[in-house]
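For the sake of transparency, this paper describes our internal protein records without simplification. Because each token names a local backbone shape, the row as a whole describes the fold. One such record is reproduced below, unchanged from the form in which we store it:
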Amino acid sequence: MSLAPVQAFFLPAQYGGRLCLYHCPAHPAEDGAIESDCILHIHAFAEEMNRSRRMAALTARALAAQGCGVMQMDLFGCGDSAGDFGDARWEIWLDDIHVALNWLRQRHRGKIHLWGDRVGALLAMDFAAHHAGHAIDQLLLCQPILEGKSYLGRMNRLQLARQMLNQQGQSDLPTSSGTEYSGYKIAQELILSLEQKNALNWRLPVRQVHCLEIADDNAMPAERSAFFAHWIESGNPVQLHFVDGPAFWQTPETCQSQQWIDAFCRIFQKENCDSN
């Protein structure tokens, strides 16, 4: 299977350009439009983004080779896009998604999907729940963060544990000007936005929500299992996919997992079969 061509460019957006990698699935038609579906990837948060970057690129290539266009975008303040991470705001990131989707819609005739990793999945859900006019077809959520406050609490506990090991004696708890996690300064405005995000009662107006979860013997922690049960009872079209692979977003060294790539590809293989 040949690799799809990749285009790297800066997409104009609020406060400067966003670095984008676009994995083209096929040659465009005469009018410049592409018949296939396309996916916008929304990366993970802070250091999890760096640890996930290789897996995101490999998965994007694999999906493009199957015939689905994929755009990877560095959100404002992240990676090689404009701004510093300390200047990032949740609302700016939502606008970044809007700008990227407009770019994709100008080039693709097929359906549009959002793929989010970790906090990127929470951002994708927030966008889909509150911007229904964009007509997102499916959400692909990789070990999604479902509630921002508990996620920040875990980050605080990990930060405190690291400081105790380093005998520094203080925790980097949120202050009026922000905080720092693993070298990333986070503005108080972004912290407050994350604390307020809870997907439990969100209604997602999409055809399908695919949640890819690490689980031994298809068993999840009770809290996550209860969340998804409530979600399904509320009418969200959730399909769980259990992956026997490493948590690549938190491994100390860059990790590659064919299990995760295969899980993503199987979703679109099935989609293609069902549409034929």
